[in-house]
Amino acid sequence: MLRKTALPGLALGLFTLASAANAAPLPSSALHVAITSQRVMNAVTVSDNGRVFVSFPYWGGGSEPGPTVAELDKTGTPHAFPDAAWNDQKQTAGFADHFVRVNAIRIGPDGYLWIVDSGDANVGGKPNPPDGAPAKLVAFDLASGKPVHTIILKQGTTPHSYVDDLRFHNDTLILTDAGDPALILVDMKTGQQRRVLQHAKSTTDERPMYAEGKLLISNGSPARVHADQLEVSPDGSVLYFQPSSGPMYKISTADLENPGLSDAELNEKVSLFYNTPTTGGTVIDGQGNLYVSDVNKLRLLKITPDGKESVLIADKRLVWADAMWIDSTGKLWVPAVQLNRTASFQADGVSRVRQPVTIYTLDLHLAPQHRF
């Protein structure tokens, strides 16, 4: 069972302290336990009216069965969203009306709950099965629980794709491909999908990843997670993106969405933004400040739009801080998902996740993120 804890507010002085580019890190007492679970949760998203949704990745394991996507009630109890049928992992027929491998969830600018389902995908191994479930996006109306959009991503993927995460810019959906490095653009008006920056330096994991001081190993080799984190600036003009190993790059959305540019020409428009460390998750606030998890040193970094870094908080509990969220009250939600401790990254295949898995919050009164 998940448990949700009421959180006391922090003094505004703490927010002022954290906002300065070179301020001292917040104390550990600023990090509050919000949700705990005996299963690994890899993402959290909160609607403007306070509804809390979490996702449980297929790689997470855990001692309790449960849904892939859940809404938490006021007691912290998870309920399958939108219903049990969508979360029935035993389904074998079809793929469009149930979840296969959910990798990301987030409330979109339209107020819908958007879900990235990677389908039957392998990361860094054999090609994805040709007859397996393809990656898809599904958007649910929160009032009715009914799917509003279902977008099958066959056109924008390859046999080695692992569709990872999603951001929005006007009528364009921007996704990262962590398996076969690229960004995937989906035009909401036409339904067209195209891959850009394929195997570019900016989308390809070219350096070792470290977590808790150890080289991250998968299947006996250094792990590689290609295009992963991405954020759109508050004014919609810039996309920040990176492989999980870092560094972070940026490109104007006008260039990114220009179909007249070849991949070579588009690559010339990309510039290095910041030399980020191995990263689990990011988020951007309404002032354009990026929050980046450093999974090696167990801390959160704040990077201003002009590239100045400060340590927001460092705490040994922040083990692989993943997909963060800033809610409408300016609270920062931080899932500590312990990805590096899961069985997939252990030489003996035995999970070393320490339960419970926890989602924390920092009551920072941040300017809420803009969602185009």
TrEMBL record:
Signal peptide residues on this chain, from the entry's feature table: 1-23
Subcellular location: Secreted
InterPro entries reported in the protein's UniProt record: 6-blade_b-propeller_TolB-like, MRJP/yellow-related
Keyword field contains Transcription: no
Tree of life domain: Bacteria
Pfam families the UniProt entry points to: MRJP
Chief place of localization: secreted
Keyword line: Secreted, Signal
SUPFAM superfamilies linked: Calcium-dependent phosphotriesterase (SSF63829)
Protein name: Gluconolactonase
Organism for this UniProt entry: Acetobacter musti
